[in-house]
Specification:
CATH architecture: 3-Layer(aba) Sandwich
Strand content: 15-25%
CATH topology: Rossmann fold
Helix content: 25-40%
Number of domains: 1
Order of helices and strands: EEEHEHEHEHHHEEHHEHEH
CATH class: Alpha Beta
CATH superfamily: Alpha/Beta hydrolase fold, catalytic domain
Number of helices: 10
Length: 281
């Protein structure tokens, strides 16, 4: 892990492969609301070493700094701009999942000269009220102490969104997610105050106003399966089609059999093929 100073904080970042590569072959990856940089391990397996992936923990998550405030798209954009400067990337290919797609959309609209391409995994549109209910289990783990890492992983495996879908990518992702507690147990590294402020700001955000300002060619990947039930997907087909229509140069790909988590945290051949084809990897 590398420590990158940007926008008055320090972010934890990792690159695959570690060896330097031409900046035009580098993809910068932005994770979701309660996630971390390891969500991009499947894409690293699919794209490296033909492309170099740089992924980082958002402020308030993983091993990045957790300031008391500043959890909004504007702050994330300035963090990202500093990260690109650190790596000498003047024009980036950005990948974003969920909240990471929101961040990428706003960044592409605000800094069009700095974005070459966008790959958006099941995100980048305004959050419906019922979506918050589907995210509740992921948020409920924050600040809770579990007796051990196995107990933590067992609790997650039992959640409806992971039933019959658990794999080694999910295992590695949530293993990185925890830190030891003074009581001898483990808890998520995600700062609860960060998510509380983030959610309050997301409810007031209107991403649709930026869609038509995105000039970069865009790939939008939609996960059709639900999380807590059969129908509570985070992006409906109608929403995905409307978003793809609003972004001037956007290709929509639906990945059957995936939900909001496994569209990225799995070895899905359609997702890998669509992404590598779009990037020319």
């Amino acid at each position: 892990m590398e420590r990158v100073k940007t926008n008055d904080i320090t972010l934890a970042a990792q690159a695959w492969p570690e060896a330097p590569a031409p900046v035009e072959r580098t993809v910068v990856c932005i994770h979701g609301l309660t996630s971390n940089h390891t969500v991009w391990l499947p894409m690293a397996d699919a794209l490296a070493p033909q492309r170099r992936l740089v992924a980082y923990d958002l402020r308030g998550r993983g091993d990045s700094d957790k300031p008391p405030a500043g959890y909004n798209l504007a702050s994330h954009n300035e963090d990202l701009r500093g990260l690109l400067d650190h790596y000498g990337i003047t024009r980036a290919t950005l990948m974003g999942h969920s909240l990471g797609a929101h961040i990428a959309i706003r960044f592409a609209a605000k800094y069009p000269d700095r974005v070459a391409r966008l790959v958006l995994f099941d995100g980048g549109l305004d959050v419906r009220a019922e979506v918050l209910d589907s995210l509740a289990p992921a948020i409920a783990r924050l600040g809770v102490e579990f007796p051990s890492l196995p107990a933590y992983l067992e609790r997650l495996r039992a959640l409806p969104m992971f039933a019959g879908r658990w794999n080694h990518y999910l295992d590695r992702h949530f293993t990185y997610d925890v830190e030891p507690t003074p009581g001898g147990g483990v808890r998520s590294k995600v700062a609860k105050h960060a998510i509380e402020e983030e959610m309050a700001n997301l409810i007031r955000t209107r991403l649709w106003a930026w869609h038509h300002q995105v000039n970069a060619p865009t790939l939008l990947l939609r996960a059709p399966d639900g999380l807590l039930g059969a129908d509570d997907c985070l992006m409906t087909q109608e929403e995905a089609e409307a978003m793809a229509h609003a972004i001037p140069d956007c290709t929509l790909v639906v990945a059957p059999g995936t939900n909001h988590y496994t569209v990225l945290l799995s070895d899905n051949p359609l997702v890998r093929r669509a992404t590598t084809t779009f990037l020319g990897a």
